[in-house]
Amino acid sequence: GRRGGDSKEWTPVTKLGRLVKDGKINNLEEIFLYSLSVKEPQIIDHFFPEDALDDEVMKIMPVQKQTTAGQRTRFKAFVAVGDRKGHIGLGVKVASE
Q1: Are 66 and 40 in contact (CB under 8 A)?
Q2: Is residue 2 predicted with pLDDT exceeding 60?
Q3: Residue pair 77/57 in contact by the 8 Å Cβ criterion
Q4: H or E element at residue 55
Q5: 38-57: b or e for each residue (b if 16 or more CB lie within 10 Å)?
Q6: Residues whose CB falls within 8 Å of the CB of residue 97, separated by 6 or more in sequence, listed in order
Q7: Could you give the CA distance from residue 11 to residue 96 in angstroms, rounded to a whole number?
Q8: Residue 89: CA count within 13 A, CB half-sphere
Q9: Kind and range of the H or E run holding 15
């Protein structure tokens, strides 16, 4: 599932977020045209209605780091997110659990 939404108004942090909120970027294709990096999830929420995106965990793999006390194991997850209409994204995250 997607993140639980806050009822508060979205305050953009990045320049791309401000452009989207001000209405200067009207669709997702304009972001892809200029190869802009999407750093805020609210940007995607702005273009897609609620429950329009599907996600699927592609792979979970263990990653180990050698420390002086031994090995520390964390897990790397690859997730594909899309709307089944031609838009797809890949998310990668490493976490301890």
Answers
A1: no
A2: no
A3: yes
A4: strand 54-67
A5: bebebbbbbbeeeeebeeee
A6: 75
A7: 30
A8: 15
A9: helix 15-21
Q: What is the pLDDT of residues 43-90, one digit of tens each?
A: 998 998 888 999 999 999 999 999 999 999 999 999 999 999 888 889
Amino acid in position 47? F
> How is the chain split among helix, strand and coil, in percent rounded to 5?
20, 35, 45
- CA atoms within a 13 Å half-sphere pointing along the CA-CB vector of 90: 6
d(CA 84, CA 81): 9
Residue 5 has pLDDT above 80, yes or no: no
Q: At which residue do the structure tokens 């599932």 appear? A: 1
- The dihedrals phi and psi of 54, each to the nearest 5 degrees, come to -110, 145
